Amino acid sequence: MLNMILIVGIGGFLGSVFRMLSINFINKIFPHSIGFGTLFVNILGSFAIGLCFSYAQNKGLSLNIKNFINTGFLGAFTTFSTFSYENLMLLQNGNYFYLFLNIVFNVILCLLAVWFGFVIFK
């Protein structure tokens, strides 16, 4: 059990660091009202989890690798809590158009990314 905790913890550490670097990089390129950095990591994380689960179903992955990638790295990398906070800020500031765009883009594009990642190994 301690091994699994360490595996997930290391994955979470790496995922959260990569999330911070990715969000900062993307937000410098696209400094707009919508959190494009958050959108980027949510789409990339959704795609990656689709790839990983599809690969695991079709080729097989060890439990350690699945937990490292899915629970640890991708659990820390994707940012639904940040997405929720950014939407609350848009709502409180009366930016209803950007609130709508941010919700629609994140939900639809992340669903498409999971699907695309999943079909790659089918």
Automatic annotation (TrEMBL):
Organism encoding this protein:
Campylobacter estrildidarum
- What are the recorded Gene Ontology BP terms? cellular detoxification of fluoride
The reaction(s) catalysed by this protein are:
fluoride(in) = fluoride(out)
Q: Indicate whether Cell inner membrane appears among the record's keywords.
A: yes
Q: What is this protein called?
A: Fluoride-specific ion channel FluC
Which residue positions does the secretion signal occupy? Answer: none
Any idea what job this protein has?
Fluoride-specific ion channel. Important for reducing fluoride concentration in the cell, thus reducing its toxicity.
User: Main localization of the protein?
Assistant: membrane
As for family, the record states: Belongs to the fluoride channel Fluc/FEX (TC 1.A.43) family.
Has keyword Transmembrane helix?
Answer: yes
**Where along the sequence do coiled-coil regions lie?**
none
NCBIfam families linked: crcB (TIGR00494)
Q: Which residues cross the membrane?
A: 29-56, 68-85, 97-121
Membrane topology is: Multi-pass membrane protein
What keyword terms does UniProt attach to this protein?
Cell inner membrane, Cell membrane, Ion channel, Ion transport, Membrane, Metal-binding, Sodium, Transmembrane, Transmembrane helix, Transport
- Recall the taxonomic lineage recorded for the source organism: Bacteria, Pseudomonadati, Campylobacterota, Epsilonproteobacteria, Campylobacterales
Which residues are Na(+)-binding? G75, T78
Q: Which InterPro entries match?
A: FluC
Compartments reported by the entry: Cell membrane
What does the entry list under GO cellular component? Answer: plasma membrane
